[in-house]
Amino acid sequence: MKILLVEDDDRIACALAEALSDRHYVVETAADGRSGLDLAEAFDYDLILLDLMLPELDGITLCRKLRDRGDRTPILMLTARDSSSDKVIGLDAGADDYVVKPFDLPELLARIRALLRRGSTALAPLLTWEKLQLDPSTLQVRYGEVPLNLTPKEYGLVELFLRNQRRVLTRELILERLWSFEGDIPGEDTIKVHMRRLRQKLRVAGAPNDLIETLYGLGYRLNPNLEPPV
Q1: The 3-state secondary structure of the chain, one letter per residue
Q2: pLDDT band per the 50, 70, 90 thresholds, residue 166
Q3: Which of 3, 63, 78, 84 is the 20 to 30 A CA-CA neighbour of 30?
């Protein structure tokens, strides 16, 4: 299960991310509302843990934007505010549950499990291009009938391409989407290394060499000539 944690308090974010990772959840973090919205729009998550008070974009506005765009990902709000009116505002904005800080970790984990069980009844659609398939519900990627054993960053690259079909992805955009939540953003050579390894795995699975094109000076894209006919 993949969780997006949007929390600007480093202490809380690190502790919660560690607790979730220890329980085998895949966790990505954002320290402000704008970065959280970008990640939520670029990738599929099974759950969003969303702080109410955030820089750049507050949690209520972020939640409303996602719901207005048809995103039905379960959202659990985290906040230091304990008034009934604040809870009502959060739930009316589209949040599915509401936990007040400081929270009891076992209770929070129980609420997370409950929301994940509820959300699992609606399966996300497969993302496909040519014979490449990504199943957001199981986090599995395959080319044709061959499953691909991908690293988290390789998985992120495949998902980013499949969610931005027909779009040229610049190296700057890829770095922002896949590395911004880690704090120190690496150089562009890092992308080249990951792309080389991803392409090698795709070739071994039977994909054509140009499934992912390099547009020199621009970036990368899925080869439009290989899109399956409608």
Answers
A1: CEEEEECCCHHHHHHHHHHHHHCCCEEEEECCHHHHHHHHHHCCCCEEEEECCCCCCCHHHHHHHHHHCCCCCCEEEEECCCCHHHHHHHHHCCCCEEEECCCCHHHHHHHHHHHHHHHCCCCCCCEEECCEEEECCCCEEEECCEEECCCHHHHHHHHHHHHCCCCCECHHHHHHHHHHHHCCCCCHHHHHHHHHHHHHHHHHCCCCCCCEEEECCCEEEECHHHCCCC
A2: confident
A3: 84
